[in-house]
TrEMBL record:
<feature type="signal peptide">
    <location>
        <begin position="1"/>
        <end position="23"/>
    </location>
</feature>
<protein>
    <submittedName>
        <fullName>Uncharacterized protein DUF3551</fullName>
    </submittedName>
</protein>
<dbReference type="Pfam" id="PF12071">
    <property type="entry name" value="DUF3551"/>
</dbReference>
<keyword id="KW-0732">Signal</keyword>
<dbReference type="InterPro" id="IPR021937">
    <property type="entry name" value="DUF3551"/>
</dbReference>
Length: 87
């Protein structure tokens, strides 16, 4: 009975600490008449996408989910304050 309790405890800890897969939007999508829009977006480089598209009726486009995302630049994050002119 003691080993059963230890085994169940270990199983519960292992199941609770499993890491879930992270969703990732890749920058390039393979488009084809068989795929919906925007296509199969699972390519990290344009060369990978073109290699997969060769020999098929397919083309590669930039992933619209990542291409037009929010801009994260230093200038956008700065806070401006009014300063008196130095005369």
């Amino acid at each position: 009975m003691k080993y059963l309790a230890v085994g169940l405890f270990t199983l519960a800890i292992a199941a609770g600490s499993s890491v879930q897969a992270q969703a990732r939007d890749y920058p390039y999508c393979l488009t084809s008449p068989g795929y919906g829009y925007p296509g199969e977006c699972s390519y990290s480089t344009y060369a990978q996408c073109r290699a997969s598209a060769s020999g098929r009726l397919a083309d590669c486009i930039i992933n619209p989910r990542t291409a037009f995302g929010p801009r994260n630049s230093y200038r956008d994050d700065r806070r401006y304050r009014y300063r008196e002119p130095r005369w």
